[in-house]
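N-acetyltransferase
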Amino acid sequence: MLKGSKIGLRARHEDDIPTLRTELYDDVVGSARAEAGPWRPISPGSKDPRLVVDDTAQGSVAFSVVELDGGSLVGTASLWGIDNHHRSAHIGLGMLPAARGKGYGTDVVATLCHYGFVVRGLQRLQIETLADNHAMLRAAENNGFIREGVLRSSAWVLGEFLDEVLLGLLVQEWKANSQG
Ligand SMILES: CC(C)(COP(=O)(O)OP(=O)(O)OC[C@H]1O[C@@H](n2cnc3c(N)ncnc32)[C@H](O)[C@@H]1OP(=O)(O)O)[C@@H](O)C(=O)NCCC(=O)NCCS
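Predicted structure tokens:
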């Protein structure tokens, strides 16, 4: 398990799946805002890749997020779009509703940065989020991510086009921040 200060990132366990499905992916509004495509229900037993992890996939790594204190499941996190030529990847995360606003998201981003920069040797990490997702923007900026641009009207979310913000962090910036 990869440990942050409050959370750990570990492999997906079979009994994480019903909780993630019910609390994250059955939420139409939350899913529509966090996912790249339209909401659709996930059947129990489905092999949907957001829930059932393919350990052999080269382009992405999925984690379950647990509290270090007690080991309870609190969310899901991933490094995706891993590009070993440009040495870049994207970060994604979703905390269970009861686990939000406790600093866990910030710690997940920090731990994913360690995974991306130290374990995988990447040079750039990137986050895209809706421009009104203030918690995600703060969790990224708390870790030194820089707003690089606005993708105007790039996300179709429940009947309207919303802007997305693109944030990036380079390994040398991350190292300088870590030493500061
Ligand atoms: C976005 C998300 C991952 C952030 O995780 P979190 O554990 O709630 O975040 P933290 O507790 O670390 O808080 C991060 C910052 O956001 C702020 N914040 C938290 N909830 C907020 C809210 N609803 N509105 C505004 N700011 C908020 C916190 O005060 C904190 O700011 P600070 O560090 O300046 O004090 C989480 O809220 C979540 O899972 N949301 C739904 C799914 C989602 O949006 N995923 C991201 C898709 S790109």
